[in-house]
Structures are given as structure tokens and as C-alpha cells.
Design a protein that fits this description.
Blueprint (H helix, E strand, L loop, with lengths): L5 E6 L5 H11 L5 E8 L5 H8 L3 E4 L11 H13 L4 E4 L8 H6 L4 E5 L11 H8 L3 E8 L9 E8 L6 H24 L3 E4 L2 E4 L7
Parallel strand pairs: 1-2, 1-4, 2-3, 4-5
Antiparallel strand pairs: 5-6, 6-7, 8-9
Helix pairs in contact: 1-6
Bound molecules: glycinamide ribonucleotide.
Glycinamide ribonucleotide binds next to α1, β5 and α6.
Length: about 210
């Protein structure tokens, strides 16, 4: 049987380990998706290198002069790139800019993000450090739909990670990352299967859930 592969565009600003995990899940036949393009706002992002190594189109698109957002013109270029590649889902994988109206409107309900904390706690930057310094006993990660707020969209999957007494920010981040790599692929697979139904703030997963 030939399964349809969901065409995905990935936006990433840095190391790209979440991108790599998605590639690995796809190559192992565990994720019915095809990464059509990886776009970065950082010219020498390792994520671009990882994509090229797997024969995936990789583009740096100038974000414009602002530090935390893309300019409207830049957003237009990002939208066009997704369109040119026939992308149906955008996966933010360590993309460190806030997306605004133009991009959000062009891909309404079709943008996912992975965040390294149990939202709604610790949104924004350095979430693992925020959680560690706050002193929580359990942290984790969240895959959610992207809306106009900062890490505020409807939550699809979360995974918890206990904080140990002897943890450092680095050791905690490492264990959270392992869970990120697992649940991001799981969420995208559910999206690919058309099993995510959004009811207000709640995301209902239809059908039986096989956790991997
Ligand atoms: C990941 O921990 C991801 O959750 C986080 O950046 C890291 C990127 O790592 N994203 C955010 O903090 C977004 N607010 P990666 O480049 O190795 O995937």
C-alpha cells in the first residue's frame, strides 16, 4: 500500500536536533511525512547542513533587520517559499522568531511548535532554565499549534520529565530533548493522519493512540 506523505516545511534557527529526529523517524518509516524544505533565519544554522546531508532543500531567507520577528516583507518570502514547495504543514523546530499575521494567516491551523517546558508554564526563551531556576520538580515539553501569542496555542501532546536534585540546566535540557524528539514526530503523525480535532483550546486526538 502506498501511504500519502504529508509535505512538511521546517523552520529552524540553530542546531537542528529536532529536525534530525524528524528526518530519522521518516527514514525509519515511522512518520508518514516528507520534509520538502528547511528554512532558516540564520545563514550558518546547523539545521541547514543537516537538511542538505539528507538531500532536502535548505534555504536561508533573510529575516530583515528586526531581532525577534520577521519583517512583513520577509514573512512574504517565507510564505512564498512554503508555497513553492507545496508544503501543507509547517513545523517550527527551534525557530527563534515570533511569526506574525502574514505567515499565520497563510497557514492557519497548519503550524506546529515544540517548546521545552510544560506550557502554559515558562513560555518564551530558555524555558528549561526558567523551570530549573523556579525550582519545579517536574518539567517537560509541549507540542502545540501556533497562534498569535507566544507559545499560547492549543496543546497537542506533552511529556513530563522529573527534575533531579543533582540536575543542572544542561542535564535537564538533555533529558527534555529526548522527549521532544519523540513527541514531535508523534504529533506530526497524528496531524498527517487527520486525527487532531481542535475544540476551542482543547485538541482532541481521534482514534486509538499508540505511544512510541
Ligand atoms: C529545542 O529545545 C526546542 O524545544 C527549543 O529550542 C531547541 C532547539 O533545538 N525551542 C524553543 O525554545 C522555542 N521557543 P534543536 O535546534 O536542536 O532542535
Amino acid at each position: 500500500m502506498i501511504t500519502r506523505r504529508l509535505p512538511v516545511g521546517v523552520l529552524a534557527s540553530g542546531r537542528g536536533s529536532n529536525l534530525q529526529a524528524l528526518i530519522d523517524h521518516i527514514e525509519a518509516g515511522r512518520l508518514d511525512a516528507e520534509i520538502r524544505v528547511v528554512v532558516s533565519d540564520v545563514k550558518d544554522a546547523q539545521a541547514l547542513e543537516r537538511a542538505r546531508r539528507h538531500g532536502i532543500d535548505a534555504c536561508y531567507i533573510d529575516p530583515g533587520p528586526r531581532r525577534t520577528i520577521l519583517t512583513a516583507e520577509a514573512e512574504e518570502r517565507y510564505v512564498q517559499c512554503m508555497r513553492d514547495h507545496g508544503v501543507e504543514l509547517i513545523a517550527l523546530a527551534g525557530f527563534m522568531r515570533i511569526l506574525k499575521e502574514r505567515f499565520l494567516a497563510a497557514h492557519a491551523g497548519r503550524i506546529l511548535n515544540i517548546h521545552p517546558a510544560l506550557l502554559p508554564s515558562f513560555p518564551g526563551l530558555q524555558a528549561q532554565r526558567q523551570a530549573f531556576e523556579y525550582g519545579v520538580k517536574v518539567s517537560g515539553c509541549t507540542v502545540h499549534f501556533v497562534d498569535a501569542g507566544i507559545d499560547t496555542g492549543p496543546i497537542i501532546i506533552q511529556a513530563s520529565v522529573p527534575v533531579r536534585d543533582d540536575d543542572t540546566v544542561a542535564s535537564l535540557s538533555e533529558r527534555i530533548l529526548e522527549e521532544e524528539h519523540r513527541i514531535y514526530a508523534e504529533a506530526i503523525q497524528l496531524f498527517a493522519e487527520g486525527r487532531l480535532r481542535v475544540e476551542g483550546r482543547r485538541v482532541i486526538i481521534e482514534g486509538p493512540r499508540v505511544e512510541g
